[in-house]
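[job 4417] fold queue: 2 targets
>>> target A
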Amino acid sequence: MVRAAWNIFGDSYRYRQQYNAYKAERRAEERRMRGALEGQQTLFDLVDGRGEGK
């Protein structure tokens, strides 16, 4: 039964592992970039969710 499940879902499981590793790396890079930009304003700081300035 385990072999059958692995044959069916194995590729999906491996893909998900790779995606999770990519996602963690991407989030870490975003945190580093936010730290590098500390004190700088971005477009998102100037515009709220409705497209209007704060």
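>>> target B
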Amino acid sequence: MPLVIVVTHSWMSEGINQTVKYIMGEQENLYCISAYTDETMDFMDDVRKIIFQNNNQNCFILTDIFGGSVNTKLASFLSEFDNIHLITGVNLPMVIQLLLTNYDEAEDIVGKTIFEAKKGIIYMNERSQSIDEFDEF
């Protein structure tokens, strides 16, 4: 199971964490950090501790917005750690895909995760089916 760390501005990551728990139950390999909150002013140290506590295994860090301060600061880890895979534009399908992936090659996981996350973005007004025709999962 890959190590997944979600780091977002404010409480978005906590919302993702609570939703994942609701759908999948507690996930021991998922860490969610709410940057710039009273509880987490120094998210960089928090992420670094998680990486070290997990024996520097391959780690997928997901951030909320490209070019935002969270993403920009965490990009510095790419030159510090060989085992970091930084993906921005986090959404719930992306997190679930990573958590359900049997670990193979990190680059394959990243490609598949991004592909699946993009498939979940749908403009429903353009769908020929009515919303009632879709299966719930």
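[job 4417] complete. Note on B: DSSP finds six helices and four strands in the chain.
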